[in-house]
Amino acid sequence: MEKRFTVRRDDRAMPREDCWQLLNETNVGRLGLCTPDGSPYIVPLNHVVCENKIFFHCARSGRKLDIIRQNPQVCYEVDSLLGIITGIKACNFGAYYRSAIAFGEAYEVINPEEKAAVLNKLTAKNASSCQSYLPVTPEDATMVTVIGIKIKALTGKSHSRCTPE
Length: 165
Hints:
165 residues, Pnp Oxidase, Chain A, single chain, 7 strands, 4 helices, alpha+beta, seven-stranded antiparallel β-sheet, 41% strand
């Protein structure tokens, strides 16, 4: 990782290892892209982390791939809502949470064996432990696109206890 981003509230900054843990624990994240005309585009995805990269799969064509091929700079966000803070007044309400954002460069995984390995890790992560399934073969993997994100920066925040505002 090259860049370092800081969060505004140092008291809520998450250590890097906690960011990785959150990425590994969550099943769904949001991919942030920038379209050629500068408009934002966000897509919720299932993901898996392998070798310090984030991977997801998608169809072999579509808007998401068109954007990535034009501008591979992406971010990927995951979060976990831990609870709601209530109060007498609306302005006392808040949330307990953990969130992480990875910034990086997306690339298409071409090798069918690597694609199959990623898809099998993704399936293992999301399948119930008592559910059996046939593994993805390299031939099966040619039916989808697998995208990896080389992470250049990773930042996170958490609010898990009462912190003075």
